[in-house]
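To: structure desk
From: M.T.
Subject: fold request, one chain
Message: Could you run this one when you get a chance? Sequence is below, nothing fancy, just the single chain.
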Amino acid sequence: MDSPNHCSLFIYCIHIHILACTLSYDNNFADDSWEEIYYIYINTINTNTTQFKALEDSINIEDITSNDNNRIVLRRIKRNSANSDRQSLYIQNHYHQEGEGCIDYVPEGAHDMGWLGYFVGKNNHLKTLDIGPFTPTSGASVMEVLEPFLKGLNNNKSITKLFLSGINLSDFKIICPFFKNNYNLTSLKVNESTLGYDAWCSLALAIGSSRNKSFSLPYQVTPISFNCASSVAI
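Reply: Done. Structure tokens follow.
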């Protein structure tokens, strides 16, 4: 199947989601596929959260990450303060600003990213999450590092804008609970990512699980290539 069909499939699924919102369905409505995916992942999330919760009071930030900037970001997100003027998180390869003003996090491995995801999941004030290209300093693969983070992210209900740039997720179903539970999410952008057929399907399912009616519009799909950069903004 060529890339225009990928795009057509995605647009078709988005239209279904828009139609469902237009019909003003209640919160008890759910497609069987979305519910099945949701319950599979929510069980995994609950187990993951329990493990972190048991260690939360005894873990030291210094034992989670060795980088001072990462420690600053972790402490801020863990504090969960409404008074903080830094309610954005950028996960990427470098720091735009170092020290107390830092809002960038450079992933090391699955351990620190798991804790970051856990704290993000509990945070009630974080508004923007931007995940860009990165190479884990531990030598682990990007997905090995992202998966524990995304499991924690699924518990977050405050993020309004999610940006994914250069991240080639092969399966977006892992974040279906995030879309389903977060009624504040209004903006999604996937940019410079090469997505295959399965990824487009799972992204459509993830978006379809959203219960936020304002999330549907506006949407725009820019030119896509199966082997080149692609982007979609919702």
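Reply (cont.): The mean pLDDT is 76. Let me know if you need anything else for the meeting.
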